[in-house]
Design brief:
single chain, mainly alpha, 8 helices, 82% helix
Length: 194
């Protein structure tokens, strides 16, 4: 819930602020495409959920205590997300999730409870996605600037309005595809411990 309330608006902020879509239509679009993203990607490839649920080990002897530790980690994530939202601190619930679950596992079973092979995947993905995101953003901006330099404003506004709506839907879909799986992985871990 907190992840949706803090991250999902990013997908529709531009379409609302530029008045391409009304707030109610944009929220409906975000809800539908977030759900479709989580549903479709879980059906196609559940590696994100598997990575999150395999990042840590809460042991097998004291599953009841491990479930309490996992619940405490999730509660800490929610507290952090609400505090960050309240004070206007930019944050990522994905990073909070990874840190909270890992911290809970370390508190429960020490550093041996962390599966470094799965953690490496997360760190490599973080570095690669940041580099690719900046590079793709830069080159895409330059390409758009070049292609639309001589296009009339009315034509450009119409095209970019449709492109914003498509981009908002795509961003909502990918938010559901990625963040939806992360939290499903944590829920799977909780079900396993239960």
């Amino acid at each position: 819930f907190v992840n949706g309330w803090t991250d999902a608006p990013n997908a529709i902020a531009t379409v609302i602020s530029t008045r391409v879509m009304s707030p109610s239509a944009a929220v409906r679009m975000a809800v539908i495409f977030n759900f479709l993203g989580a549903f479709a990607m879980t059906m196609v490839n559940s590696k994100v959920a598997a990575t999150i649920s395999n990042m840590v080990s809460f042991g097998s002897d004291e599953n009841h205590l491990a479930l309490i530790v996992l619940a405490a980690a999730m509660f800490a994530i929610v507290l952090w997300a609400v505090a960050a939202w309240y004070f206007g601190i930019p944050t990522s619930e994905s990073h909070a999730l990874i840190a909270g679950v890992t911290g809970g596992a370390i508190a429960f079973g020490g550093f041996s409870a962390v599966n470094m092979n799965e953690w490496k995947k997360v760190l490599i993905g973080l570095v690669i996605s940041s580099a690719l995101g900046f590079a793709a953003g830069y080159f895409t901006s330059k390409l758009i600037e070049l292609l639309f330099r001589r296009v009339k404003r009315m034509t450009a506004n119409k095209f970019f309005g449709m492109a914003q709506a498509f981009g908002g839907a795509a961003m909502a879909f990918m938010h559901g595809a990625q963040d939806g799986q992360k939290f499903m992985g944590t829920f799977l871990l909780g079900i396993f411990l239960y």
